């Protein structure tokens, strides 16, 4: 029963939010009772998660470290430092993917907050990639999201900001 409640909450948030390219899109919902066990959502297909990408990125970084150390020692002996350029380019591509992932994720979170929604369950398994060749980050699983009210905002403020806000409100 909790799974159906989570699914209904996810339906509510995804159907009420304006479109954002980094938040999974609700394509369709089942007709009928939302609390029936056959209730379902149709969402974008995701190929992998950030958790899987982090494992790939770590493995790639280790390979680059090994290759760089090997070429560095070899080039030192041969006096040809330009051979390591391809390794540097590959390391920059890896960094590019990681920085854009962080940027896209922060954009999705900012969009949620702008519309009064707090995700509450951001973790690598809830961040997916919808296209393998072009990094496109999608924030998923908003079933634990809540609508933010003034009292929720105060819960996440620094103490001095909270005192200042409370003074303004009284």
What features would you highlight for this structure?
170 residues, mainly alpha, Transferase(Phosphotransferase), domain 1, two-stranded antiparallel ribbon, 5 helices, 11% strand, elongated, disordered C terminus
SS-derived structural category: mainly alpha
**How many domains?**
1
Regions with little confidence, pLDDT below 50 for 5+ residues: 166-170
From the N-terminal CA to the C-terminal CA, the straight-line distance is: 42 Å
CATH class: Mainly Alpha
What is the average of the pLDDT values? 75
Major β-sheet profile: 3 strands, antiparallel
Under CATH, the topology is which?
Transferase(Phosphotransferase), domain 1
Percentage of residues in strands: 5-15%
Helix segment count?
5
Any idea what the radius of gyration is?
Answer: 22 Å
Rough outline: elongated
What does this structure look like?
- The chain has 170 residues and is mainly alpha-helical.
- The protein has one domain (47-169): Transferase(Phosphotransferase), domain 1.
- 54% of the residues lie in helices and 11% in strands.
- It has five helices and seven strands, in the order H-E-E-E-H-H-E-E-E-E-H-H.
- It has a three-stranded antiparallel β-sheet with strand order 3-5-6. The protein has a two-stranded antiparallel sheet with strand order 1-2. The chain has a two-stranded antiparallel sheet with strand order 4-7.
- A hairpin with a 7-residue loop joins strand 5 (127-129) and strand 6 (137-139).
- Helix 2 packs antiparallel against helix 3.
- The protein is elongated.
- The two termini are 42 Å apart.
- The relative contact order is 0.16.
- The model is unreliable at 166-170 (pLDDT under 50).
